[in-house]
Structure formats: structure tokens, C-alpha cells
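Example 3.2
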Amino acid sequence: MSANDLDKAEQGAAEKLTKPENGSPEDGKAADGGLDADEVEPKLAPFAGMGKEELLKVSSEPFWVYTRWTLLVLFWLAWIAMLVGAIVIIVTAPRCAPRPELEWWEHGGFLRVFTRSFKDSDGNGIGDLKGIEEKADYLKELNVKSVQISAPYGAGNFTDVDPDFGTMADFDSLVAALHDKGLKLVVDFDPNHSGVDHPWFVQSAASSADDNAFKDYYVWADGVGGNPPNNWLSVTGGPAWNYSAARDQWYLHTFQPEQPDLNYRNADVRAAVMDALRFWAARGADGFRLTSAKYLVEDAALTDEPANPNYSGDPGKYDSLSHPYTTNTEETHSLLQEFRTTLDEFAKDGDSYRLLLADVMDANVRQVVKYYSSNGTREADIVLNYDLLALQGGADKPGNKTFGRIQSWINNLPDGKRANWMIGSANRRSNCCRLNSSTSQLMTAPRSLTSPLMTTSQRSTRSSSPPRSRSFTSRKQKTMTQQYPCRHNKFKVHDQRQGRDSGNKVHWTLLRNSCFGEYYKAYSIFNGKFTMNESHSSAFGRN
């Protein structure tokens, strides 16, 4: 075949490819989807990856070999570093401090005894120290850890036993008897005033001459036109000043005229009172309750006190005035700190810790809790809380306002301090009798650090029946009650309630009882163990 024949054959084949099957010029498209022949894309096979041989070849290249070894070494180095770091932290980190051991007053109950009315040992109609000693076994049976007694001294001598209560030998014997039973002794100590028959006052009232060493042992001031120096009022009513003709001056008495206030701006007075405190601590007293604590130091300028805007009664009553210049002064807190420092001297000498209770009795809870510490300095270990004594009948019956009062104290209590609630005192019947003669309450308060048991025991000196008492236990854990052997009606659980407020758990148990002549013991379950009166309970009073 010639070259021309080949060219013709190729041209004919090309015409067949471009000629429509039906002869229509519009259909000059390829059969596959209407695309022109030059628009048809070749179909590619999917990528199957590298084969085994190719992978082995690539992985054997130096770069990938070095990369693998580098990552492996870095991994193990990091793991070993973390392990070593953890071990170093465990070994070198400071260990958690061991839980501090509780002081004797932090793990037991108190029984408050009014010496004059508790037990008469000699038949003269007055309770005495010997009478308390005779009941040492009975006090031990009550399972309390400490006994708090009235001030053993008289207002005329801070360092001797009041003859009504016995002798110093009787006090020493009482201390020994209680300590033999494993009980601690807490005594009342009133540093606010002395008696008018105290040698200090007798000499102070004799003369205002500069050569009188006792001239400024008490708060003396000149009158104004024959009247008292200012408008200050006595807690018992009337002016807080009494005139002394011998000095032609007025002396301050926060309470009775027979109780002149000591002047704590006098360094000699401070030293003498601290020595009296040391005296009783050295005789074996394990703690002290400072009474009238908020009245100790007054305003040096004797500034008149303002009228109480919330009072509308007799203008001569104590509550008719507000008392910013005679109560809760900064100097009073400084004095409390000095009391605390004085008692700490005994712990430094290897002796046991001396407890300091502060009896403030102020309606302002924020003022009261300041007596735990002020400006970062310790003062009282326990500040007695009388808030529940303000409850009356009617709308104040338990369940209406009680929870709010308890929560108010807890919210204001400094961290790490012991909470307590007094529900009875020497001149106020216990809440169970004052609010409802058939209901006593056992309340568990929400606080991680709970309170010592404060009880009050008082009875006729000629009575042979056991002292009337009620307890009010403060504890975060569950609390149960059990009847103590009694000749009268049994206690019965009347109602139990449990609730939460701001995350705090409160457990209430109402006990049905006759309110007179009955008493019971409180038990606690803590960490799964059943213990008796090891809970840190709070204050309660007599019927």
C-alpha cells in the first residue's frame, strides 16, 4: 500500500469518529454523557500506598531511624523525671502537723456549783467548801470533768477564803479531793471591784494626799456643783458615783455602792490583782471565770454617755443610756490579755494549762466574741454566751427563734474557738422551765470545734435530793440521751428534727420530762464509738 492510500485510510477513520450516528449536526457529541471526545477525562486507579518493600526501604533511611530513637529516649527520660520528682516531693514535702492534743477543758463537761447554796457541812445554813468536798464522789458520778465554784474569797481580801465558806485549809483539801477524783477546779474571780472594807479602799478613802500610796487605787473624781462627776449610771440603777466626805470626792461603783471600782490605769493595782490571780493558781485552781469582764476599764476623760434611743422607760435605769465609755473599751481588752499572759506563766513552768473564762453578758454578739482575741492577741479561752437567756415565752418559744440565735453566735465565732450557750444562771431559771415546763431541749449545733459543758447546780442546803440540772449539748455529730437513775418521771424522746441552713446541719431532740427534780446524762457517737460526756457540750442552768 502506497503512502497516499495510508493517508486516505486515516482520514476516513477520523471522519467516522466525528460523524453523528443519526446524521444530525447537533448530535455531534460523544455517546458517553454528551461530552466531546476531547473533554473525556481518563479514569485513574485509586492509590494503594507503598508496598512492604517500599516501606521497609523508607523506614531504614537514617532520618527516620534517628527520629524513632530520639522520641523513645525522650519518652523514658520524661517518665523517669516525673517518677523522681514525685519521690522527691513525697520525701521533702513538710508532713501534715499532728492533731494537737486537747487541753483538759476541751474534752469534758463542767458543773457549776454555787457554794453558798450547794451543801452545808456544819449546819449553819450556809453552803461551804467542806460541803462540796463531801460530794466529790457524787460529782465524779455525774461524769463531769471540771467543777466551777463561786469565788472562795471575800470582797475584803482577795487572797483569803471567805469565813462563810471555811478556811484556807478547807480550800486546799477541796483541791486535793477533786484532783484525786480526776476533776479540775475552776473558781470565780471578780477583778472589777473590791468591798468598801478592803484595806486598799479604806486607805484610799482616807486621804487624797500625794503621800497616800493607795490614793489612786480606785476611780475618784471631783463632783460638779455638788453633783456626781458625770451622768454614768450603776447597773443596779441610779448614779454610778458615791460621795466620800473624807476625800470630798466621788468614787465610781458600777454595781453596789459597797463595791467600789478598781482603777486599772494604776500599775500598782494591775500588779496586785495579777498577784492575787497567781495566788489562787498556785493553790491549785485550774482555771478562772472572770466576772463583770466588760466593765473593767472606763473612759479616762469621764465623758457623759449618750441616751439610749431605743429606751422609753425610767430615765434613772441603767438601760436608759448607751454605754460606749464604761463597757468594752480597748483598755479592757488589753487587761484581759494581761490576765491571759499571767496564767500562761504556769504552763511555761511545766504546770497544767490554766483556763480563762470571760463572763461578758452583752446583747451585742459581735462585742462578746471580741473577748476571745483582740488585735490578734489571745484573751479568754471561752466567752460565756447568754444569748438564749433572752428567750421568753410566746413567740420566743423554742423552735421559733432559737435556731436564729444559735446561728448568729456561730456565724460570729472566731475560727478555732469553742462555742457555748448558757440556758440558765444564778438568777435565771433554765429555759426548759422558763419557756415550757414540760419540754427540755437537747440541741446539736453546727461547729467543727464544739463547746465545753456548762452546768449549774443549786439546791437548798437542807435538801437531800440531787441538784436540779439540765444540759444543752453542742456537737456536730449525732447525739442521744439516756435517763440518769431518777425517782421521778422518765425522759421520753418527744420529737426529733434535722435540717440544714447554709450547709450547716442542725439536729434537734426534744425530751419530754417534768422539768423538776430530774436530770440526765448526754451521750455522743463520734467516729463510730460510743462515748459518755466526751462531747464538748455547752452551758445550762438550774431550774
